[in-house]
## 1
Amino acid sequence: MALGVIVFVLLTSLRGIAGFYTDYLWFDSLDFTGVFTGVLGAKVALGAVFSLVFFLVLWVNLLIADRLGPRFRPPGPEEEVIERYHELVGNRAGLVRVVVAAGFGLIAGAGVSSRWNDWILFNNARDFQVVDPLFRTDVGFYVFRLPFLSFLVDWAFASLVIIAVVTAVAHYLNGGIRFQGSAQRVTVQVKAHLSVLLGAMALLRAAGYWLQRYELNFSTDGTVHGATYTDVNAKLHALNLLIVISLAAFVLLLLNIRRRGWVLPGLALGSWALVAVVVGGIYPAFVQRFQVVPAESSKEAPYIRRNIEATRAALGLDQVASKPFAADSELDATALQDNEDTVRNIRLWDPALLLQGYQRLQEVRPQYQILDVDVDRYLLDGELTQIELSARELDTPGVPQDSWEAKHLTYTHGYGAVAAPANSKTADGAPNLVVSDIPVQGAPAINPADEPSIYVGEGLEGYVVVGTTRQEIDFQNEEGTQFTSYDGDDGVGMGSYLRRAAFALRFGDINPLISSSITGNSRILYQRDIKERAQALAPFLSFDADPYVVTLGGRLHYVLDAYTTSASYPYAQRAETGNLSPRSGLDQGFNYIRNSVKAVVDAYDGSVTFYVVDREDPLIAAYQQAFPDLFTDGGEVPDELRAHFRYPEDLFRTQTTMWGRYHIDDADDFYNKIDAWDVAQDPGFGNAAQLSQQINPASGQPVGAAREARIDPYYLLMRLPGDDELSFVMLRPFVPTSPDDSRKELTAFMVASSDPDDYGKLQTFTTGVVPEGPAIVAANMQQNEEVSRLQTLLGDRGSQVIYGNLVLVPIDQSLLYVRPFYVLANTTQIPQLRKVIVSFNGRVVVRDTLRQALEQLFAGAPATLEEDRASPDALPDDAAVPPVGSPPAGDPSAPGSAPGTDDVAGLLAQAGAAFDEAQAALEAGDLGRYQQQVQAGTALVARARELAGPASTTTAMPQVGSA
């Protein structure tokens, strides 16, 4: 038993050492040892210094307690126990002092190392060049110095309390304190000693009250955050008085050294308790109830103005440009033609649903996975086009061979990417892939053909070893298995048995130590999740929930938006973070934020570059001074990369949530929430039948919970009202605030620019009238007779109708609402874009294509990407064009063919056979055959539906050529 415990402790200790050692090797492999040693040095220094200070102070006091012990201890009931203690200690009193002081010192200092970030900021403090309105002190004091000073004073006070208690126990054991007997209960020497300790505690209490004055700037007790009327006119005075009382207590405790009894200490403590209760508690409550509450709006008005100004500055909302927006009904075919680039890029593929399509069509092999779809813009056929791009990453659990060698030596990386325009589809309603397949092929600007391998990515766990005697599988296709060898800079060399043993301990896997495939040239790659990698390198930054992949120079890169945050900006309101993803790094409370850094990770070699893109942020300047080798100046960002930077979603979510109230300038209007906004209600996304249940049949209006979900921000490639050029922006609409969330009219929308020339520019467009908001428009769409008929028709026989996200598109001074309409066959689970619903000025139209819907509304519209621009109008409405790659029509031997029969049952039987073959092809890894059979089966089902009942208008379009 004892041997087992020893082995367990030894292995645990060795594994901890191995983890520390391999962490250093990892930082060293990326040339970022400065971060490792800097953070470690701060932790060790803080723990050591604070432990040492506590040890010395306690040891000195224990030594004094031993020296002040009476030489003669009168007999009494307690003496027997104390005598046993002295017999046990004997002449080892000095050792006991050291052991006790060291034990308490280690405990007291152990937790201090967690304050390393506060120490680094304290040690690299900067001025904000802005002063708070209450104490006229630079904001930098609050952000950089006050958190560590407050901790220091609190730690010192708590330490003195512990030291005083331990010292009193020592005096008791030495006979200086007695609770029984007729002799003096506390000797003069002991009283003097304890009085000094209590006096030091009084001084620290005074220092704590002094710092609490500044902390009133973060008060949450008033109408808004920051020092409000009661804080300034009651609590501040109470703290000043408590400072005086604490200093007076210090003087009384020092005087008590030469006086008999405990009258002066009792007087000091009693006065402090009285003032703390009456002045510190009762008086502020009295002021709040009888002075503030009866006239709260006028009393709090000056402090509300301070809060508005500070919150805007701290959350990056002080430069928002506000513009009027007429929301008129003047939109016509001429205006659409003038804005053809906006119309051309209206998003019809929702990323969440497109992800499902990518996964079904392009994961290809079980060892691959597609986890996310990222919206960006690229040049396609010479025109700037909104593109939805995904990386095909490695899925280690899906590796066909369940062996250590396969999962760590052979299947080492993902491969390639998938991309499609946001407004384009094939003849059968599938996404029109412009980058696809293995080997990867497609549009040159988006195709990572030069280096398609992905060794680091989203969600990658565990480790792989490259440079072994085993060949790495690059990809598999009809020509067989293709192999590759990693040639990047990432990875830690495994040339020595010490390192191999360390990695075996780190991962709890003996194979890195004993595998004969690992050679002196082998390297191990770990920390391969891009977010975990960036967080490990910059643990003081917070990261956005949604990293995005970019094709640059023929290879893939991931971009992570990194934030500096603080909760210590005077008078600023704490940000509301309830609408952020659980994956967001902004889950902690903060009232200051800047997107100061763009972290760019090479998907092949794992290199990370931290570009500082906000040089005005004092926080990032402090970190740059602390870790000079970590950051790269934003001026060095390649223009090709800068063109793909996006305004971060988590930041925009936070800003729009706060702007709903903080756009108000007047303090009285702010207090009464006059013209306050909320982010518009989310009309929903998903199964049409379920969404229809959210509509009140009597009124035709949406019915939701007391507080409905908010619409997510989304990216648009569009021409903003009044602009001449396309802009890549993020948009989020607002509705008026209402207690029961019943107001659903559009009142404004905010956009954030991602273009290099005006990156980060925030604009609010405020409607002069009150048009219908997204929830109302979505309800009108679902109640439309034609939409309801199509939902019923297309949603039968084993298919689901899916409503996509509602997209608000401002064009000139008018509002256009667009909602895609998908069909999801239960057999394939591949979404098809079947219809497009458009609403303008109360009218709702549903057609096969966006252009057709716009033509119906406006008697004219520009061409859109969803059409074959050569001959979209040459086909009759009921034309049936076989999908590309399907067998010739009338071939009875092919399951995908359509023999000249009008028998619905026969068509459905053939469709079922085609889907069965598609499933078999998918399981065999034959992507081409899989797509062919799915398309054939889908065409047969569509033909059967047409024969079964009234046909909907269906224009079959030839596939837009995908490379």
Note: Residues 351-454+461-528 form one domain.
## 2
Amino acid sequence: MNASVQHALRNAAIGVIAVTIWATAITLSAAEPPDAQGAAKNLARGAKYVMSPPPSYSHCTDPGDATQLTDGRLTEGHFWTQKGTVGWSHAQYATITLDLGKTEPIGGASFRTAAGVAGVTWPAAIRIQVSDDGSTYYDAGELLELDGSLSSLPSAYAVRRFSTSKLKTHGRYVRFLVLPTGPYIFVDEVEVSRGPDSLLSTEAGERVSAEAGEYYARYRTEAGIARRFKFDTEGVRQAIQSSPLDPAAKERLLAQVTENREDLSKSVKVESINSFRAILPFSKPHEALFRIQAALWKASGRPAFSAWAVCPWDPMDLYAMPPAAETRGIEVHTMRGEYRSGAFNLANASDKALSASVRFSGLPGSPAPAYVTVHEVLWTDTTSGQPVASALPEAERAGDGWRVTVPAGLVRQVWMTFHVTDVPAGDHAGSVLVKWDGGETTVPLRLRVYPLQFPTQTTLWVGGWSYTDGDGSRGVTPSNKRPLVEHLASRFVNAPWATAAVMTGFKMKADEPPTFELDTARMDDWLAQWPDARTYFVFLSAGDSFAGAKVGTEAFKTRVGAWITAWVRHLGAKSISPDRLGLLLVDEPRAHEQDDVIIAWARAIHAAEPRVLIWEDPIYAKPQEGRAEMYAACDILCPNRPMWLSGGNEFADFYLDQQRQGRTLQLYSCSGPARLLDPYSYYRLQAWHCRQIRATGSFFWAFSDTAGAPCWNEYASTVGPYTPVYLDEKAVVAGKAMEAIRESVEDYEYFVMLRAAADRARAAGVDQLILVKAETLLQQAATDVLDAQGAGNLMWHSPKDRTRADAERIRFLEVLSDLAHR
């Protein structure tokens, strides 16, 4: 994909227009306070500097970026479309390091920027760091805090010069480390003010890492920890205040919360940023805070330990009181060969963490059935500060069961994956036995196995820009690549993606016709990773030329044609037919220039190899504005599902008409970050939407995208991961979102199975009543699920009934079973 954040891309696309309109109504002089540093000499004027990463915002990036920040000239007009501005797009941070020529006393600094419209926000922080030798750096202060005006910044478009005269440091090198709150950073001038000579003998500040990336990760991580402590302190406080306890009992607990705050503040620092994982609780004082919540539960009459069944797809509330009593049991309905989930929660109202054993009773294979995988669900924090219980590491095996840890005052969910292969059909009534030091409790469990067999090969195409070719990209590494491929393949991913590098290694002989000697090593390795794939997708990222020939020339057509023919022959030698190769030429086309590139490439490819698939994901808000020839050139159109949901009938009708004209429809989603999206409505129901519109594929950005940081520490990322799994440099751990994708593929297959069974039954002349039931399900089930209240809201913490899909699925199982016996 072209970018991780689709809505940010869309903002960027319209940003120039939006801000130009606003800028005409803004008086910029009011946004610039007078220079508080008086006549202090600006040491930065004319100074050389280096920037990391290189500027990347296309509307203002130019060769002059190398000198513009210290030339004394200020931008006039709209800030981020002027060449005098330097800008970054989707950078985690930016550094501007000035060389003053010699060690100087430093009394102040300034940074001039703009924000307030088109997705451009004010910086989160601007750290001023100094060094005498360019190697060892010291932190001199945070500019926004020293400036003091951050709380009064306007919400509309404005230009602001953040400045201070309160620095007391010295150095030859001055580094501005800018941490954004959104996707953009802009600046047109920086200044460093000379201070008195006495500053040359002062301490420069607290020593920091010379590596800006490490400092950035530590800074964001510790800020995230501090925010988590603040939120949890307030959350527990509010839970106490809203409880039915008498005032005296509340005051005692509130006093404990207040007393714990100082200990929390002392535990914000992390020893090793590389080993920190944002799994709650973070520290001993954090554990103590939740012990206060456990005391609240106990004082409110909850038992010392309790267990209850829950819907596995519902979000969890970190501060919710455990139910007073719960008799509902877990129900799992499955055919043999598929994967289905169940879950229950454990609450510990004692004053210490407890270790609990989990076993089964009454089910075939008890106490530890081989067809059940038990997961200990972990609480992790997110970039936004919304904690989620989504990570699914497998629970530790212990004797004839499993062991899970249940912190005091923090609900622990236990997730179970059932993969029944040889259990007899029928109802199996049993229970989950949970035992801890001091007692035992049970949760009723009913496993119903239907007399049906799930196929080993599924119908729905499923992929997510996994990019496991070569050494991998984004969050894929040589160490985690194989575990990731195995994990995805076990979740029915059958349409993997590779980068253009698998097809762009070649030598061309400019004969007539041209011939291509392909470098197939990267392609061959990638194909070997995915031996059972239905289709192989490559994001080609096509441009306006190929092998030295410009689009629109006869040489371009013949060279593209010869190149794709060479690849088709190579794949054919591996028994991969041309229609199992899909090419994304331009990602998310939304302009006519992009359409023209697609048209030219698609025509050249199809002229030579008409069976190769052209797959495109246009993001025109009004799709009719795209070139008709672009749509006609595609074999598969894959509109964005959130755009479909918000685009109304006009958007849907356009693509349904394309389908009637012969194009295959598929759906993709690329909202994020992933942890805040609903495993049920965003991930699982996409396959139901596919079935409703007769789409054949479901894709998600992106199985590989960790947003530049391990998934276990989202604080180190500005936007949070987009991958539905928990991926770090070495391993992959299951997540609820990826489990929802797997179950969605199975849901889709139910429609396929029922369609085939109904057709066979009709041909055999079976009773019409059962056929009516089957046809009703096939025609109405997807609509009934998708039209349920709240199903169109894709955020996890929005209220909705997440049992509706399973209720419909059970009806499929019953009708399929009935047809199987006729």
Note: The chain has 15 helices and 37 strands.
## 3
Amino acid sequence: MKQSKLLRRIITLTGALVVAATACRAGVKPQVKAQNTYDSGVTHMESNISEMNLKGYVGTNVKNNIKFWQRTAYKNNKNIVGQIARANSIGDYKSFSDVLGNDFAGVDSYYDIDIVPYGESKALGFTLKKMPSSFGDRDITFCRDDHAVIDWSGAKELWVNVDASEVPSPFSLRLTFEENYVGRETFALINGATVYIYDGGVRTAVKVETGGFVPLPAGFKGVVALPLNYSTFYCYFNSGGNGSMDLSVLAQIIMCIKGTAPQIGKTIYIDDFSIVGNVNGVTPPYQAMDEAYTYKTVWDFEWLAPRDGYTASDLWWYGEFVGKLLTGMAFCYKIEPDQELKAAAEEIITDLEAAQGEDGYLGVFTGGARFSISTANWDLWNHYHCVVGLLEWYKLTGSEKALGIATKTLDLIYDTFKNRSYLVAGGFETNRSIAHAYALAYQVTHDKRYILEAERIITQDCQDGNGWYKCALFGRHYYTSSSARWETLHMIMTLGILYEETGKREYYDVMSAVWEDILMTDVHNDGGFTTNECALGDPYLEGIIETCCTVAWMAFTNEYYKYNKTVAVADELERSYYNAMLGALLDDDKYCTYNTPMNGEQGTAGSYDGRRVPSQQDISFQYNPGSPDFNCCQANLARGLGQVVEWACVTDGEALYLNYYGNSSIKTTVGDSPVRIKETTTYPVSGSVKLEISELAAAKEFTLKLRIPTWAKGSRVTVDGKTTVVTAGEYYPITRVWNNGDTVTLDLNMDVHYWTNRSSTSIDLSIASVYYGPVLLTMDSTYGGTKTTLFTADGFENATITSGTSYGCMLFAEVDTDDGSTVKLVDFASAGKYNGKSQPSTYYTWLKVFGAPTCIEDDAHARWNNTDKHYVLSENDITIARRGWYAGETVEFVPAAISGKKLGSVDCGNVTVTESNGKFSFVMGDEDVTVRLTYVDDEGTPDEPTEVSASAPSSEVSSEKSAVDKADGGSGCGGVGTGIAGAAIVAGAAAITLKRRKNRT
């Protein structure tokens, strides 16, 4: 795969951050800052939108989500803050919840398992509530208790102190342990193995029963002694391990107590876990198998507080939920200033203030687990999201309370890490995202500690040889880096602010290199990012496309757009939003998917459903009874839907850049002047958009820049009755003195375009994704068509597009198929829904299309803007790359070189042709143009020309051998290419008819 020039660029690391002392935290709501504080000369785009009044399909979805989800999300899921309050209330103690693993077997439904009083100390109590159909294992990740001993080197036996005095009937115990020395290895008891029990101090041998259970008598009180050898245990799970019982890094104990009905309501107490052997301990309480052995307690429960019914900290990322939600609520409040939404957000902030620790801690962990100092978790990642949400709310409302919570938290983190690395235990690619929170806080407070710390994280802790930074710097792909997950994008978002505040170009170049590479290698046809949560370097791979991944890609893209300022990047924001993001929202407008795949088909996603089902189903392991609706994706939903407000209409301080097209009324500012832009349109059903200016306090001169999408070649803008054909892939500027009531009409050309899958092997039949404007057309089982349906390019060119409003959809495309039947396709966002049924529909976006373009090479941009077509007119003779041009568009072509021949003449009829360095060009008029190429042999004898007609329209040059050699063509992602066409002559001469394309209205 070829690399872009930027990826091949080796940038020299130069310069240091130069900052000047500035005032401390601002005490008032900050003003929008298009200029950087330190006069680096770098500016960024800023959204000053205070209302969008979205209507139509998008407006309905966003407003319903505010109504059905965001207003009540916290009210019905209070533990997302309650868990923080609990962590700050138990001090140095951990809750037992913190060490409980996932309850895959549903043990909590029939056992109460908790820390309970036991004499003058504590024990782990198992109280049977009811008899289950079968008894399962409960994971207990004891290594999360900082007081536990995880190095069992030299141990010969594991002793478990059991008190079942209350139990009137026999029971049995199964114990498994997991070590993490090399990979993950889990060791289970062997059926028939010999173990020992101490009952009344007497050591008695017993046999392990079927299923790995140790039988124990009624009322047993003593020790279960398990020899730590291969005669007693076998390795039944191995993930990257060495298969050896190393006993040096223990992580988890997995227990099952199988009882009988008389045990219901009775408690079995586990007093502690100990090891016996060459362990540098004390004399054992009972005679060990060898008198030389000593005894050491490896885990008691004195530093554990009882669980509170929740198991939140099973998830390393549980603490992110409230921050993600608050960020999305802030964005959506800018779209729709809903007072109930504001009240809900203010309640969160009030409760966060009460929950926050006196030192500023805002996480869900306790003891050494805080900030991942001694235990692997994502605590800094969780704080990052909380700080971002608080800062976004402050920027929106001026809430000093929100700012105070955020800076108090950051100050604690700063004081904790100012003399140490952020490469703390576990979660490296997540925890370093705190750099972005520092950078954002700096732009609000101007506290230079924050920007210095943000840069330190990037320059000190992100410089590993195979990390994302060095990979981008030295031209290697993002997906080959050691941190090629979606979470890393939040860390990379720091680079834009560092570039702005320092002027150091390297930061922008690295950010740009990462973005460009991800776009070409890991963004799917719907604009979704990653496969199975990772960057794998292949956008065609079928797999999980997680909602969180797409939200992160959109957030990163928006941050990049602020500094890149091109239509190309804005096009990607639109594609992701209209397809992947809106497609993640389920029918009820409340819940979202975890997986929004390219093709939605049950049984194609491993252990996941493979269709658009609720995230609560696909990732049910994240369920928490204190926040039953929440998981990582559900928490991110509001941000994904609201992110549009950050790019819909932005300003650089002088001009307005209008990127969002859709029925709306956008209230914003240009300079210091309020203005409203009303859009009257059915876009994307049609490309006609009427803009009207209002709410200006007085006439004002400014520039309004209209995004002309890369795919919208031949579009027109009408101002004051004058219509102009505009260039696709660029902003069209309108500079004038604006008055209330001024109108502009934009007619975007909505011809279909393609992304042809590289798996297509036939020049006639391609596997392709087909787009109408920004919308990915989708074949859904609800509306007809099957996996074997064959389409044609002509069918798509003549498709009938209608609104899908009455069906709750965005749009329909009625397309004639190869067999003459008609299939109704639907927009991707509306595909895969339940439509009132018990199961979601099946859908496909990779379609079989006769006459679709061939695949653009992987190093070409904007694959989804391809309208190339290729035809072999006679075998081994002439290949034509055909496309259509609009009147006024420049056509360029380069005749092919033929061995033993030279070009004699180029005839384009009445059209004036110019030539420069072997490249010919003319301006397309109102009629088709036929180009006649005549070749002569070395003696000057002309060949007879061959008439060839090419009429199908397209916009790009093939990646395969074209009819005319390529020169300066192609699209570029957002770049404007003229396109090259002609005939590759194997022998003789040729004539090519270049068709004038009519504008569609």
Note: Residues 1-37, 868-883, 945-1001 have pLDDT under 50 and may be disordered.
